[in-house]
């Protein structure tokens, strides 16, 4: 009998519904597997080192990150790479902008217009909101790549793929989150708002394939 409250209950509703399958979630929560997927799909991703094996040509500056899980915590600049089984090392792309693309749905996929954030390569992982407008070509490339990743994984609900833009304007895929935050101020909701969806409509987009409406 308790009244439904979106900010409090939406996460429970989505978690209770069928989300992405075990293989998809395992892939997205393991950065090494995700980067192998990017490579297999022909999506540019920074060369990396994992468990003593190099995947591509490594540079002098590397970003060390936990290979399992999402988020920006635990990132630091490391050189040279150490064979720590808990860490993945990837080339530091010297771009000052990151772009994130959220994709919603399963049988009918909606790709939202990206968010752009500014980063300081000296404080890797610290991002700030930016009103920088990237060329439409770059946005479209990232949107297509994010949709391809989502569909290849057979994902449900929402996924969010992050890209870094290098000084030449090229996009490099960094990671894909299986279940990004759904709060009104988070990336998925703000991207949906820019696409013209109210918050209620955004939540309905996520749930409609589960409830059949």
Please provide a written account of the structure:
With 213 residues, this protein is an alpha+beta fold. Helix content is 32%, strand content 24%. It is built from six helices and eleven strands. The chain has helices spanning 6-16, 22-28, 31-41, 136-153, 187-194, 199-211, and strands at 48-50, 53-55, 62-66, 76-78, 87-91, 97-104, 110-111, 115-119, 127-129, 158-165, 171-177. The strands form two sheets. Strands 6, 7, 8, 9, 10 and 11 form a six-stranded antiparallel β-sheet that branches. Strands 2-1-5-3-4 form a five-stranded antiparallel β-sheet, with no helix packed on it. The longest helix is centred in the C-terminal third of the chain and has 18 residues, at 136-153. The protein is globular and about 50 Å long. Residues 1-18 have low confidence and may be disordered.
């Amino acid at each position: 009998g308790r009244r439904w409250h979106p900010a409090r209950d939406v996460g429970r509703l989505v978690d209770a519904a069928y989300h992405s399958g075990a293989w998809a979630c395992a892939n997205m929560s393991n950065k090494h597997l995700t980067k192998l997927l990017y490579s297999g799909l022909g999506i540019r991703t920074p060369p990396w080192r994992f468990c003593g094996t190099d995947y591509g040509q490594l540079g002098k500056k590397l970003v060390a990150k936990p290979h399992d899980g999402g988020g920006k915590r635990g990132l630091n600049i490391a050189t040279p790479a150490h064979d720590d089984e808990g860490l993945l090392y990837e080339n530091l792309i010297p771009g000052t902008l990151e772009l994130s693309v959220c994709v919603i749905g399963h049988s009918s996929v909606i790709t939202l217009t990206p968010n752009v954030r500014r980063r300081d390569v000296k404080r890797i992982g610290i991002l700030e909101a930016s009103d920088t407008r990237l060329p439409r070509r770059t946005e479209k490339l990232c949107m297509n790549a994010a949709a391809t990743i989502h569909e290849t994984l057979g994902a449900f609900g929402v996924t969010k793929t992050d890209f870094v833009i290098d000084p030449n304007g090229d996009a490099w895929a960094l990671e894909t989150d299986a279940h990004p935050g759904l709060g009104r101020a988070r990336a998925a909701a703000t991207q949906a708002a820019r696409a013209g969806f109210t918050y209620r409509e955004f939540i309905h987009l996520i749930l409609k394939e589960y409830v059949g409406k």
